[in-house]
């Protein structure tokens, strides 16, 4: 369980790792902001699509082999990204990285839940803690290594994921070939969206993740511009500290605040409150995109609200239906990652065509949709199973 959690942490580091080095990649490879943000799009889009089919693969070759295959792909493609000569090559290699991430992440959650002795709720908190720590440390590592070269964070990730691969290879128990009865249908991930509860949560997460990755992928550019307007040099190192603060707030909220809230309040009330607070934080970013201190504070506070949302939504999905957890997790993650993939695709061109605050207003609109969907949905306490087909 702890070996998988360590590998999860490093895997999630890969999401935020490129954040501080996006402007540096733009400068060194003569790429526009819109082009470099596609590093998120290719990664998240392939991750999202592949998520729907990872359960089919793991039910045939087993959890351990699926985890190892995913980690191996991440090691190879992150190293290739570091050796790239153009931004288009990095975009392509990030897509292969995303495939490995899908194989690993979708299987890892179910594996942690299965390995934990304290029940699914404690395992989900551990998973979200790994996510939060990874997202916090990723930008910090990216900033420190990126101050030497934008290539260094990619090679650093490859090295750490290789350690994660070796850890799972050594400590994960040997598996027998899955029984024929355990094998999943190839389309099981897509078919699972027929369940109203799962589909409803996935759609809420789709718009939420759209806003999530506008904040994560787009914010380095207005932060750098706001700093430049004040005569400050805001490079990879400084961006790394900002997004470390964001990730730290996310991790803290995921592990400490979210479990306490779910013990006292209903799922619906938590989601409505957090979506409203996150919407307000994004509105502040939209209004004060040129005010460096205000923008930094809003980004970090947003991380706290996102941490609660991540944990509550994940726990709800795992208990929403009587589907196998690997299927439910893969389907939900597939939809939400596709939402995240679209965000960087539109944020750059929108900012270039209008003004720097426009992508944040788009994030506000997406969060408003999540808020409305939550408001009209019949969601109860996260511990209540919400099954049933449409």
Automatic annotation (TrEMBL):
<feature type="transmembrane region" description="Helical">
    <location>
        <begin position="97"/>
        <end position="117"/>
    </location>
</feature>
<feature type="transmembrane region" description="Helical">
    <location>
        <begin position="201"/>
        <end position="219"/>
    </location>
</feature>
<feature type="transmembrane region" description="Helical">
    <location>
        <begin position="124"/>
        <end position="148"/>
    </location>
</feature>
<feature type="transmembrane region" description="Helical">
    <location>
        <begin position="334"/>
        <end position="352"/>
    </location>
</feature>
<keyword id="KW-0812">Transmembrane</keyword>
<dbReference type="GO" id="GO:0022857">
    <property type="term" value="F:transmembrane transporter activity"/>
</dbReference>
<keyword id="KW-1133">Transmembrane helix</keyword>
<feature type="transmembrane region" description="Helical">
    <location>
        <begin position="358"/>
        <end position="379"/>
    </location>
</feature>
<dbReference type="Pfam" id="PF07690">
    <property type="entry name" value="MFS_1"/>
</dbReference>
<feature type="domain" description="Major facilitator superfamily (MFS) profile">
    <location>
        <begin position="1"/>
        <end position="382"/>
    </location>
</feature>
<feature type="transmembrane region" description="Helical">
    <location>
        <begin position="239"/>
        <end position="258"/>
    </location>
</feature>
<feature type="transmembrane region" description="Helical">
    <location>
        <begin position="295"/>
        <end position="313"/>
    </location>
</feature>
<dbReference type="GO" id="GO:0005886">
    <property type="term" value="C:plasma membrane"/>
</dbReference>
<feature type="transmembrane region" description="Helical">
    <location>
        <begin position="69"/>
        <end position="91"/>
    </location>
</feature>
<feature type="transmembrane region" description="Helical">
    <location>
        <begin position="36"/>
        <end position="57"/>
    </location>
</feature>
<feature type="transmembrane region" description="Helical">
    <location>
        <begin position="270"/>
        <end position="289"/>
    </location>
</feature>
<keyword id="KW-0472">Membrane</keyword>
<dbReference type="InterPro" id="IPR011701">
    <property type="entry name" value="MFS"/>
</dbReference>
<dbReference type="InterPro" id="IPR020846">
    <property type="entry name" value="MFS_dom"/>
</dbReference>
<dbReference type="InterPro" id="IPR053200">
    <property type="entry name" value="YfmO-like"/>
</dbReference>
<feature type="transmembrane region" description="Helical">
    <location>
        <begin position="154"/>
        <end position="172"/>
    </location>
</feature>
<dbReference type="InterPro" id="IPR001958">
    <property type="entry name" value="Tet-R_TetA/multi-R_MdtG-like"/>
</dbReference>
<dbReference type="InterPro" id="IPR036259">
    <property type="entry name" value="MFS_trans_sf"/>
</dbReference>
<protein>
    <submittedName>
        <fullName>MFS transporter</fullName>
    </submittedName>
</protein>
């Amino acid at each position: 369980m702890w070996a998988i959690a360590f590998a999860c942490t490093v895997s999630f580091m890969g999401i935020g790792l490129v954040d501080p080095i996006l402007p540096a990649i733009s400068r060194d490879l003569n790429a526009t902001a819109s082009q470099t943000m596609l590093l998120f799009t290719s990664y998240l889009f392939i991750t999202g699509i592949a998520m729907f089919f990872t359960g089919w693969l793991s039910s045939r070759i087993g959890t351990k082999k699926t985890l190892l295959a995913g980690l191996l792909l991440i090691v190879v493609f992150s190293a290739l990204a570091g050796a790239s000569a153009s931004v288009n090559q990095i975009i392509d290699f990030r897509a292969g990285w995303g495939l490995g991430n899908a194989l690993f992440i979708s299987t890892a959650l179910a594996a942690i839940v299965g390995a934990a002795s304290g029940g699914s709720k404690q395992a989900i908190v551990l998973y979200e803690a790994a996510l939060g720590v990874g997202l916090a440390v990723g930008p910090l590592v990216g900033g420190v290594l990126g101050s030497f070269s934008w290539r260094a964070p990619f090679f650093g990730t490859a090295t750490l994921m290789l350690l994660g691969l070796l850890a799972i290879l050594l400590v994960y128990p040997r598996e027998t070939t899955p029984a024929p009865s355990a094998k999943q249908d190839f389309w099981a991930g897509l078919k699972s969206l027929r369940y109203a509860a799962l589909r409803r949560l996935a759609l809420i997460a789709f718009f939420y993740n759209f806003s999530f990755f506008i904040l994560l992928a787009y914010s380095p550019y207005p932060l750098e511009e706001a700093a430049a307007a004040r005569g400050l040099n805001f490079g990879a190192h400084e961006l790394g500290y900002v997004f470390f603060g964001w990730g730290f707030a996310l991790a803290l909220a995921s592990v400490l605040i979210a479990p306490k809230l779910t013990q006292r309040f209903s799922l619906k009330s938590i989601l409505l409150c957090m979506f409203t607070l996150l919407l307000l934080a994004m509105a502040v970013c939209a209004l004060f995109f040129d005010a460096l201190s205000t923008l930094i504070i809003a980004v970090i506070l947003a991380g706290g609200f996102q941490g609660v949302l991540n944990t509550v939504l994940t726990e709800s999905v795992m208990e929403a239906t009587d589907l196998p957890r690997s299927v439910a997790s893969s389907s939900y993650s597939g939809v939400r990652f596709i939402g995240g993939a679209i965000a960087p695709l539109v944020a750059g061109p929108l900012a270039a065509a209008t003004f720097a605050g426009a992508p944040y207003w788009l994030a506000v609109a997406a969060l408003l949709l999540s808020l409305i969907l939550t408001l009209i949905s019949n969601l109860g306490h996260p511990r209540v199973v919400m099954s049933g087909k449409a």
